Description:
alpha+beta; elongated; 3-methyladenine DNA Glycosylase II, Chain A, domain 3; Alpha-Beta Plaits
Amino acid sequence: MFGFIYMPVEVSTAQYTVFGLVVMVALGAGLAAILYFASRVFKVDTDPRVEKILEVLPNANCGACGFGGCVAYAEALVTKGLAANLCAPGRAAVAAKIAAIMGATVEAKEPEVAVVHCGGDNKVAVHDADYYGIQTCVAANVAGLNSPKGCLFGCLGLGDCARACPFNAMVMGEDGLPLVIESACVACKKCVAACPRNIIEIHQKKSFVHVLCKSHDAGRDVLKVCKVGCIACKKCEKVCPADAIHVINNLAVIDYAKCTSCGKCVKECPQSIIVNLRQVREEVDKLYEPAAKEA
Length: 295
């Protein structure tokens, strides 16, 4: 019969340490090799034009172009051949640089600006209830009949739009309505998305005449909650030489493709709710443009 003789071997702490280090180094080298191999196999070549476009973009990441940020837009420009003028903050100057990088021509885009379609400020809108809830338009809108103003179509005046603007182009006026600083506005649509009443729209800057009301209530009901709301009298329709304004569902609506901003409807409106914003925009810019630039 054969037997085994067990002879204990003493291993020092130093030997354990050296062995552990060797194992760790070997594992590290192995993982590094795997990562290197994977990086070579799955490597995605980046078009150098993407980096060049990123250098000229303002990196505002506002989403006005329709993408999640400037990187996504730059990549889409190269891979999908999108228009070079979708960057609202960059405007014509950036569009021209992008077009040069892509070796393409840029289509001229009419400058746009946000317009608040409500004239129901604190002086003319009926104060329907004292609102003590969360001080946002979204929360007040959910409150419905218990919201601050009686008109369920008008501005709630709690400033969600101004807070959403990444370019400091919107401020809350003393009368409770948001004011647009035209020179700072890039039409990024952040304020449009923030408004729960859908009273903010993007229009071409050359369009000066607007209906500052969104109520579809009958005229008698409108007057109960707002002194300047549209009462669907159709006087604007009758005087418009371009057939550019019509009352639809109790509300005067402008066809901006036809409107020449002649101002005849402005003079004829008995509610003074159709206005020419040219002078208003100039006054707001004088008051707030310096502050917007400093911010």
